[in-house]
Design goal:
It contains 3 helices and 7 strands, in the order E-E-E-E-E-E-E-H-H-H. It has about 210 residues and is an alpha+beta fold. Among the domains are: about 70 residues, no CATH class; about 60 residues. The strands form 2 sheets. A 4-stranded antiparallel sheet has the order 4-3-2-7, with no helix packed on it. Strand 5 and strand 6 form a beta hairpin. It is found in: Bacterial flagellum; Secreted.
C-alpha cells in the first residue's frame, strides 16, 4: 500500500499450529492499529509493547517508524507457504517403512502408521482426519461459491430492476419526443389559422353594421 508515513512492519511466525488460513489488513487509524482477518472480515485492535511488538494468531509483528493516519499493510502469512516445498526422497527404497532397526524386511509398521494418518480422527487439529478435513474444505468452498453466485445473480437482478425503474421515470425517447414536437407544432399552426379566420369574420361583421 502507498503510505504517507514512514512506518514499517515486520512479521514472523512464532506458533505454526496457531496460524490461520487468512490474509490480514493492518491499518492505522485514530492512533490505533486495527487488524482485519480478510477471510472472516473480523477486525480487532492491537497495541504494540515497548519494543513495538504484538502477537496474535501464531504471528509476531514488529512496528517501527511513525505511521500516518490511514496507512495500511497487507499481510499474507500462508499464501506462499508451499512454494519452495519439495520432495526430499524420490527413491521409495530409502523410505523408512520399518519401525525398528533390524526388525526384518517385512516390518512395515512405520509406513502403516503414516498411512493411518489419513483416516485418524485426530490428525488435523486433534479433531479431524485428513479425509474429513479435505471433505470439509471442499464442501465449504462449494457452499461459499454457490452463495456468492446466488448473491451476484440477485444483486444483478436488483440493478437491472432499478435501472428499468429509473428509465421509466426519467428516460427520454428522442424519436417519440420529436414526433410530439411535430404534432404540437401542427396544433399551433392550426389554432393560429382558426384565430385568423375568426378575426376576419369578426371584422366583416363589424363592417356590415
Amino acid at each position: 500500500t502507498k503510505n504517507l508515513g514512514d512506518g514499517a512492519l515486520g512479521a514472523s511466525v512464532t506458533d505454526a499450529s496457531a496460524v490461520l488460513a487468512t490474509d490480514y489488513k493492518i491499518s492505522f487509524d485514530n492512533n490505533q492499529w486495527q487488524v482485519t482477518r480478510l477471510a472472516s472480515n473480523t477486525t480487532f485492535t492491537v497495541t504494540p509493547d515497548a519494543n513495538g511488538k504484538v502477537a496474535f494468531d501464531g504471528l509476531e509483528l514488529t512496528f517501527t517508524g511513525t505511521p500516518a493516519v490511514n496507512d495500511s499493510f497487507t499481510l499474507k502469512p500462508v499464501s506462499d507457504a508451499i512454494v519452495n516445498m519439495d520432495v526430499l526422497i524420490t527413491d521409495e527404497a530409502k523410505i523408512a517403512m520399518a519401525s525398528e532397526e533390524d526388525a526384518g524386511d517385512s516390518d512395515n509398521r512405520n509406513g502403516q502408521a503414516l498411512l493411518d494418518l489419513q483416516s485418524n480422527s485426530k490428525t488435523v487439529g486433534g479433531a479431524k482426519s485428513f479425509n474429513d478435513a479435505y471433505a470439509s474444505l471442499v464442501s465449504d468452498i462449494g457452499n461459499k461459491t454457490a452463495t456468492l453466485k446466488t448473491s451476484s445473480t440477485t444483486q444483478g437482478n436488483v440493478v437491472t430492476q432499478l435501472s428499468n425503474q429509473q428509465q421509466s421515470i426519467s428516460g427520454v425517447n428522442l424519436d417519440e419526443e420529436y414526433g410530439n414536437l411535430q404534432r404540437f407544432q401542427q396544433y399551433y399552426l392550426a389554432n393560429a389559422q382558426v384565430l385568423q379566420t375568426a378575426n376576419a369574420i369578426f371584422d366583416a361583421l363589424i363592417n356590415i353594421r
